[in-house]
Amino acid sequence: MWDGGAGKVGSKAEFEGKTIVVTGAGGGLGSAIVELMAGRGARIVGCDQSTEALASPHIASRHVFDLLDRASIEAAIPVLLDKDGVPDVLINNAGWTRAETLKALTAEKIEQELDLNLTGVMTFADPLIKAMAARGSGSVVFISSVNAISHFGNPAYAAAKAGINAYAKSVAVELGRSGLRANVVCPGSIRTAAWDHRLAKDPEIIGRLKRLYPLGRIVNASEVAEAVAFLASDRASGITGAVVPVDAGLTAGYLPFIDDILGA
Length: 264
Hints:
- This protein has 8 helices and 7 strands.
- By secondary structure, it is of the alpha/beta class.
- Helix 2 (70-84) runs parallel beside helix 3 (107-135) and helix 3 runs parallel beside helix 4.
């Protein structure tokens, strides 16, 4: 398979000479993104909320800050730019949720989930994106969620992720002429440690979950990372402002309706 002249798809040299910033680099999905990008030649700048989370040997440079702490974000940005330069690619991956239904919401939880998944993300991304635009080139990929497309619970998180989708489109539209692309990947359920608290309550939940997905399974972190790599790469040079579900078909339609109603 050929990518139009830049090299073979998945080439080990695809990101050679590129600096890629990944937030949430120590998490389940973040680790998969880091490993894939490093394997294709990128110099990885990893960001997370602890040094311990950034132990991967694939990470060349490490920055610790908390997306819930504006001061720590603002302090980290000039240090990152001074040490690592303006990135070629920015992957905004960090995120988290625990308020799973409207019933679980409180003012404190709403504030925390919006601050972490939207305000903190934008606070960190904005100066880096503007620096990339000033240079005249760059690619930004936001990790959002299927929760931003349809309602699957986690209402505050979903609202924040819908805001991320809108923010990415604003970057795509306003900064496209400055050589910047911005796209969004919306994963469905991924079997990472984020599911551990649900499995602790109900070990059978994954089996029931799979029934909702047309592919008969949930996606894995490496599949999401592949979509991120594509959108970040020159192979996607004509794509900006796109929102791409990587969800085993979840948002395409409601399979149990076919099975239980039409197929009954």
